[in-house]
Amino acid sequence: MNNITLIKKLSPSIFGLIIICFFMPFVNISCAGGGAVTLTGLQLVTGTDIGESDSHSHGHSRDSFGRSQSESVSPQPLVIAVLICGILGLVLSFPRNLEISIIPALIGVIGVILLLFFKYQVDNAILEEGEGMLHAQYGIGFWLTFIFIIIAIILNVFLFFQSKKQLEDEVIDSNTSK
Length: 178
What we know:
Blueprint: H1 3-20, E1 25-31, E2 36-40, H2 41-46, E3 48-50, E4 61-62, E5 68-69, E6 71-73, H3 77-92, H4 102-130, E7 134-138, H5 140-176
Antiparallel strand pairs: 1-2, 1-7, 3-6, 4-5
Helix pairs in contact: 1-3, 1-5, 3-4, 4-5
């Protein structure tokens, strides 16, 4: 098995790891008063209610009568788009034709841009709405997703340039054999 075949098999695996990262903590929102909420990538994709069922959860607020109130986190379009990029990258990494490996690389670039926009969006929302009381920390799922997308981009760009090199070598070989 040559190196190109090994790398070609790695590309779908990396995109698979990206999808698995959505089950890990993506963002942790903490309050200066002590409460904290950790959201996984999947919760950001589907939306979730915070503090509804757990009376000991720090992720809910209380009204003036001491009753817990649930806060809703709506599905985040940027995170949904990143997950879609991961799924598309996984599916498009399987074809044997190395020339189209640029497509998963481009999908990865889009995924990185969307992930950075999500981070920017969360940071701005925390600044505007938190009034200095809220703080966002990005979890292992977020950072591993970012790193794995970068690795997927590099692998697929390498495969694309290797396919170009193989085509050039074939052209040179066919010209020298004439």
